[in-house]
Write a structure and sequence with these properties.
alpha+beta, 63% helix, rod-shaped
Length: 404
């Protein structure tokens, strides 16, 4: 239960909302009942004072009529929430003839000022002012002059209207602040959902980039063992070693990614390994060569350690994805990894492989790796292109900013 739900009895009914569907009127809250009772008592007190004053100058039948009409006027205030405009108009006329109903008339006028804009209120105010002037002549008070009576009646009417309009303005302000708070809460929920979606996409992209390379090595060498059961023991041992190392590295990478999802302070079981950078690109090439690929690294970057870590990591992932794709779709082909650039001009990386020799078995793929690399390059402020080459090969090319 929220704080607002616990304090519904303190709120007016228009802030709590309707009790049901179909345009039903909101039910009175405890606060509304207290206000209605107070308004009824004040109107009754005003009527009693008027009756006591009128009794000294009028006959008993007139006094009895005043008492009955005044009581009915006060009781009619319980209808002011349902028909505020009609009730105020009737009481404005009755109040001009019966002073005992003046208190109920002011209360109903206040209700209209609270619930209706001034353009809807103006004619009722004019009617009430006319009634305040007319009552001085219809039911004059000998102790009060006509001019003073008119001034008091008009001033009291305008004061009640101004008070009601002030309450209306305050309610509108509260309602606007409430809507703004609800809108801000909704926007915060949307931002949180968007942040979660972006985090999931980043984790999925990282998992693909990290694990695809390792699992491709497992697939290639496991397939070689399957189709070459008569291979020399040395080749079998070498393939088994690559499979073992790739599986171990894949588990380590998976453990790192899962560690990101752990709550702060949890043990990640083994500590964080350093993230790859451009300086570790040579290790990636050596690993691919050890797996049986023919890879040529052509780099004109003199100091890989000077490249920003985020840029170097993006280059590493692009090269990793290019080598993985070449291993799957062009086995046995020579792959060239070219790297060039300098501070201020940016960094260009290209992974190119020629057409495969012979027929290559179909290898399933989702294409998510290339999508992830494009997103990485755009987030880094660069661009990424990929596609087939004229000779039937394939190339990945990316340009990334390298601040001077």
């Amino acid at each position: 239960m929220t704080r607002t739900d616990r304090q519904r009895w303190l709120l007016p009914s228009h802030l709590v909302g309707p009790a049901g569907t179909g345009g039903a009127r909101p039910r009175r809250t405890v606060r509304d009942w207290a206000v209605d009772i107070l308004v009824f008592l004040l109107a009754a007190l005003f009527g009693l004072v008027a009756i006591d004053t009128s009794a000294r100058y009028n006959s008993d039948p007139v006094n009895l009529t005043d008492q009955i009409v005044g009581a009915l006027a006060c009781c009619s205030l319980w209808l002011r929430r349902r028909w505020p405009v009609a009730l105020a108009a009737v009481l404005a006329v009755v109040g001009a003839l019966v002073p005992a109903a003046a208190g109920a008339m002011l209360a109903s006028l206040f209700s209209v000022a609270v619930r209706r804009p001034f353009r809807d209120l103006a004619w009722i105010v004019a009617l009430a002012l006319a009634g305040a002037v007319a009552t001085v002549f219809v039911r004059p008070d000998p102790e009060t002059g006509r001019l003073l009576g008119i001034v008091l009646g008009v001033a009291l009417t305008l004061l009640v209207v101004a008070w009601g309009m002030l309450v209306r303005a305050r309610r509108q302000l509260v309602e606007a602040l409430r809507e703004r708070a609800e809108r801000a809460e909704s926007e915060a929920e949307l931002r949180a959902a968007q942040a979660q979606r972006l985090a999931r996409e980043a984790i999925a992209r990282e998992m693909h980039d990290v694990l695809a390379h390792r699992l491709t090595l497992l697939s290639v060498h496991a397939g070689a063992l399957e189709f070459r059961p008569d291979a020399p023991p040395e080749q079998v041992a070498r393939a088994a070693g690559v499979i073992r190392d790739s599986a171990h590295d894949a588990l380590q990478d998976l453990r790192e990614i899962i560690g990101v999802l752990r709550a702060p302070g949890e043990e990640n079981g083994g500590g964080d390994r350093p993230q790859p950078t451009l300086a570790t690109l040579g290790e990636l090439v050596d690993e691919s060569r050890a797996a049986g690929m023919r890879v040529v690294l052509d780099s004109t970057v003199d100091d890989p350690g000077a490249v920003p870590a985020a840029t170097g990591r993006t280059v590493y992932r692009i090269a990793q994805e290019g080598l993985t794709n070449a291993r799957k779709h062009a086995p046995g082909a020579q792959v060239t990894v070219s790297l060039s650039g300098r501070p201020g001009d940016g960094l260009t990386v290209e992974v190119r492989n020629p057409a495969p020799a012979g027929t290559v078995p179909h290898v399933p793929g989702s294409g998510q790796g290339l999508i992830g690399l494009s997103e990485r390059a755009v987030l880094a402020g660069g661009r990424f292109d990929h596609g087939p080459t004229p000779g039937g090969g394939f190339a990945l090319t990316a340009w990334l900013p390298w601040p001077s």
